Amino acid sequence: MALRVLAAMSGGVDSAVAAARIAEAGHDVTGVHLALSSNPQSYRTGARGCCTIEDSRDARRAADVIGIPFYIWDMAERFQRDVVEDFVSEYAAGRTPNPCLRCNEKIKFEAVLDRALALGFDAVATGHHARLVDGVLSRSVDPAKDQSYVLGVLTREQLSHAIFPLGDSTKAQVREEAARRGLTVADKPDSHDICFIADGNTRAFLADRLGAAEGPIVDALSGEVVGTHAGAYGYTIGQRKGLHIDQPAADGRPRYVLSIEPVSNTVTVGPRASLQVTSIVATRPVWNGPVAEPREQIACAVQLRAHGEVYGCRAQLSGEDLHIELDAPAAGVAAGQGAVLYDGDTVIGSATIAAAS
């Protein structure tokens, strides 16, 4: 049965091939590019972002080659509120957010899907490298490009109206197909950076919005102040470089950021061994897999950052919080990041990390 499908086209090779595949399958496809900035010149260029003027032109050219209608939707105000301002406020609170995860949740599969359904579309297709197996989110066949982690926040209802045409292909195969189809984005580099930070300098971006706020850097073992910083928001858990510590550690080994306290504006540093955690508490759980929410402890696996290592664990929902006990210690676990649970390649659910020990 032919569907009315809205193809989200970022201007990159993945979304272009995804739209082409859906159209070739006989569906009624309309391409849409999301204008996410009221000042696109302030966003990343040089094929590194996903929402610049350059990207919108690439998306339009791809739609012309495919032969589908194309529109640009202005989502700048929603993106600023739900992604950019959320990013800044999370850092101000001492957490480390993932803006791509938030963009998928709030923009691509909330604002866009809601509008698409209201306009009579049956589904939204994107170029994410992930699979839907019997309606359940699963990893891509290309582990290096798998994006199921950043889609783990989606609800069952949202997934029921989603199409991921690339999940059974590797990135190399997608590029080869784009070239065969005559899509000019076939060799366009992937975007890896935060699109709304033009120069990639997160610390400067946050300082411009939160202001300089000098505070102490404290050694966890000695309790001594070993340096100063211009704003605790400029640091992340597990960070080693750029600490500007005045005194070397007693054992001569590197120090890492262990905690960030926004109220006292204190950054605490210590040895790598102190980063190891085995217990995680996460909030705002979403259950989108084939099993019910785990009121009893279940054995599964968890991924704690995009393209990060996967850990065996035991997970259980207690009240509104998800408790995760890792089978082996993990380092650099930061509040604000997503914890996505898996059974093999299948996503069970996700939650936002609140604390780790």
TrEMBL record:
<keyword id="KW-0694">RNA-binding</keyword>
<dbReference type="Pfam" id="PF20258">
    <property type="entry name" value="tRNA_Me_trans_C"/>
</dbReference>
<comment type="similarity">
    <text>Belongs to the MnmA/TRMU family.</text>
</comment>
<protein>
    <recommendedName>
        <fullName>tRNA-specific 2-thiouridylase MnmA</fullName>
        <ecNumber>2.8.1.13</ecNumber>
    </recommendedName>
</protein>
<keyword id="KW-0808">Transferase</keyword>
<dbReference type="Pfam" id="PF03054">
    <property type="entry name" value="tRNA_Me_trans"/>
</dbReference>
<feature type="site" description="Interaction with tRNA">
    <location>
        <position position="337"/>
    </location>
</feature>
<dbReference type="Pfam" id="PF20259">
    <property type="entry name" value="tRNA_Me_trans_M"/>
</dbReference>
<feature type="binding site">
    <location>
        <begin position="8"/>
        <end position="15"/>
    </location>
    <ligand>
        <name>ATP</name>
    </ligand>
</feature>
<keyword id="KW-0067">ATP-binding</keyword>
<keyword id="KW-1015">Disulfide bond</keyword>
<comment type="function">
    <text>Catalyzes the 2-thiolation of uridine at the wobble position (U34) of tRNA, leading to the formation of s(2)U34.</text>
</comment>
<feature type="active site" description="Cysteine persulfide intermediate">
    <location>
        <position position="195"/>
    </location>
</feature>
<feature type="domain" description="tRNA-specific 2-thiouridylase MnmA-like C-terminal">
    <location>
        <begin position="278"/>
        <end position="353"/>
    </location>
</feature>
<feature type="site" description="Interaction with tRNA">
    <location>
        <position position="128"/>
    </location>
</feature>
<feature type="domain" description="tRNA-specific 2-thiouridylase MnmA-like central">
    <location>
        <begin position="204"/>
        <end position="270"/>
    </location>
</feature>
<feature type="region of interest" description="Interaction with tRNA">
    <location>
        <begin position="145"/>
        <end position="147"/>
    </location>
</feature>
<keyword id="KW-0547">Nucleotide-binding</keyword>
<feature type="active site" description="Nucleophile">
    <location>
        <position position="103"/>
    </location>
</feature>
<dbReference type="InterPro" id="IPR004506">
    <property type="entry name" value="MnmA-like"/>
</dbReference>
<dbReference type="GO" id="GO:0103016">
    <property type="term" value="F:tRNA-uridine 2-sulfurtransferase activity"/>
</dbReference>
<dbReference type="InterPro" id="IPR023382">
    <property type="entry name" value="MnmA-like_central_sf"/>
</dbReference>
<keyword id="KW-0819">tRNA processing</keyword>
<keyword id="KW-0820">tRNA-binding</keyword>
<feature type="binding site">
    <location>
        <position position="34"/>
    </location>
    <ligand>
        <name>ATP</name>
    </ligand>
</feature>
<dbReference type="InterPro" id="IPR046885">
    <property type="entry name" value="MnmA-like_C"/>
</dbReference>
<keyword id="KW-0963">Cytoplasm</keyword>
<dbReference type="InterPro" id="IPR046884">
    <property type="entry name" value="MnmA-like_central"/>
</dbReference>
<feature type="binding site">
    <location>
        <position position="127"/>
    </location>
    <ligand>
        <name>ATP</name>
    </ligand>
</feature>
<dbReference type="InterPro" id="IPR014729">
    <property type="entry name" value="Rossmann-like_a/b/a_fold"/>
</dbReference>
